[in-house]
Amino acid sequence: QVQLVESGGGLVQAGGSLRLACAASGSIVMINVMGWYRQAPGKQRELVATITRGGRTNYADSVKGRFTISRDNAQNTMYLQMSSLKPEDTATYYCNAGTWVVAGHANDYWGQGTQVTVSS
User: Fold this and answer.
1) Does residue 100 have a pLDDT over 90?
2) Do strands 10-13 and 114-119 pair parallel, antiparallel, or not at all (unpaired)?
3) Is 105 exposed, middle or buried, given 0-12, 13-18 or 19+ CB atoms closer than 10 A?
4) CA angle, 17 as apex, 5 and 11 as ends, to 5°?
5) Per residue in 21-48, pLDDT tens?
6) Is 4 helix (H, G, I), strand (E, B) or coil?
7) Distance CA 116, CA 25 (A)
8) Span 57-77, pLDDT tens digits
9) Which one, 5, 43, 97, 100, has the greatest CB density within 10 A?
C-alpha cells in the first residue's frame, strides 16, 4: 500500500507561479513512475506530467515550457513547479504513483488532490 499526500495548491493570478508537492509513504520501494494529473469539474482527469525513478520526464503539450516535474527519491517526494499559470490550468491536481511491474502486474495509487485556481 502506498499513501500520497499533495500540498501547495492555492489561488494565484494569471502569470503567477505555484509549487506543488506530493509526499509518498508506505511501500515506497515499489514506486516506479510518479505523475501529476488534473481534473476540472465536469471534465475528465488528464495527465499533466510524469517522471520515472530514473528521472525521465514526460509532459502534456499544454504545459510544456511552463511546468517542471521533479522528484527527490531520498525524501520520497515529487514536485511540480508551475509557472506562467493560465486560467485554464485551474483544476484539482492529483498525485499518482505506479508500482514496478512484477509478473506482468502493477498498481496505481492516488492522492486526495490539491486545488489550484488561477484567476484572469
Assistant:
1) no
2) parallel
3) exposed
4) 70
5) 999 999 888 899 999 999 999 999 999 9
6) strand
7) 23
8) 999 999 999 999 999 988 899
9) 97
